[in-house]
Amino acid sequence: MVNIYLVRHGKTMFNTIGRAQGWSDTPLTEAGELGIIELGLGFKEKEIKFDRAYSSDSGRTIQTMGFILSHSDNEGIPYRFDKRIREWCFGSFDGGYDGELFDGVLPRIFAENGSFNGTFPDDEKIANAIFAVDTAGWAEPWEKLSGRIIEGFTDIAREAETTGSKNIVIVSHGMTIGSFVKLINPELPRPRGLDNGSVTHLTFEDGKFTVGLVGDMSYRTLGNQKLNALQN
């Protein structure tokens, strides 16, 4: 069985000012770096040794992984990027303010086509709505988006299982992680608002994922306590 520690990347410039990041990229802020240092120290305190590491090919996840591995004493393990576990692409809305897309454009689309009933639509409707209004032609319809998310994480887990890995760490993105959890366990509520540096626990065995604790902040809390103790 493979234990999977699925991490949302550290807080970035765009996260801080409320912009939709998608496939565009900004670096971690100073506070974002500190949060991931705390995460790494939390893993270290729990004596978690990773056999392999994976992330998307976005700069913010690569930067996050560097801090995790160095501060958890896991440097030098096999590590590779996989573009299939990137964030959703928002096409021409990449880099725009979250409010413009999620509180403005999308609700108008859903109201116009009669699909808004007071609760926010599911991922499929959101993805297809973004695809429909994207003037750049970069956004992905739900079939393509969900397919590459499932394929990417499944291939990673299978590789880890084949190589005999017990513990792996993956750094991905908030909406991608939320979609993935819902895809592998439709009975669970769709995770929203996952904190930067949070950990979603999964296991993989015989081709099947099992979802554990979602959005766990205990490692960061433990690392924060350790960091404060070192500074005092």
From TrEMBL:
GO CC list: cytoplasm
Superkingdom as given in the UniProt entry: Bacteria
Pfam families assigned: His_Phos_1
Residues bound to substrate: 8-15, 60
GO molecular function, one term: phosphatase activity
Active site: 9 (tele-phosphohistidine intermediate), 87 (proton donor/acceptor)
Protein known as: Histidine phosphatase family protein
Lineage, top ranks: Bacteria, Bacillati, Bacillota, Bacilli, Lactobacillales
